[in-house]
Amino acid sequence: MSEESLVSEQAKAMIGQETGPGEPFDVEKGWVRKFAEATLVPDPLYLDEAYASRAGYRGIVAPPGFLLYNIRSGTERDFDIPLPVGRRIKGADEVEFYAPVIVGDTITANTRILDIYERAGKTGRMVFIISETIYTNQNGEVVQKSRATVIKR
Fold this sequence. Notes:
The chain has helices spanning about 10, 30-40, 50-55, 65-70, 75; strands spanning about 25, 90-95, 105-120, 125-135, 140-150. With about 150 residues, the protein is of the alpha+beta class.
């Protein structure tokens, strides 16, 4: 007798769905400074506007990872995937950087579910949710992409 899958047809039907851009996020100098200080990255690109300008940027640059921790992506924002499991573990993040994020930019995030599947592990059955978030600035330029794996059990 086989067990019923944790991933229902309703959940599988969500593969390919997108959240839409969500609320715009304004990149503010104070948040960039706090993030740089919290991550112990004292690079003057993240703190000094004159330095960033001399380095060829149009303003203070946000450190890598800034968007991941400061803007809500779709998996946290809009997806309510019907699964009979409650515990959530962040499995992995893969990030690609395309253009610098600058203080004064307005960023939107659009997330798409790439896959939902079940696997058996040593501690039982788990559901893996793979999503991709594309971060775009006010000029329509893609600044970052991230692929997240969330494990539910």
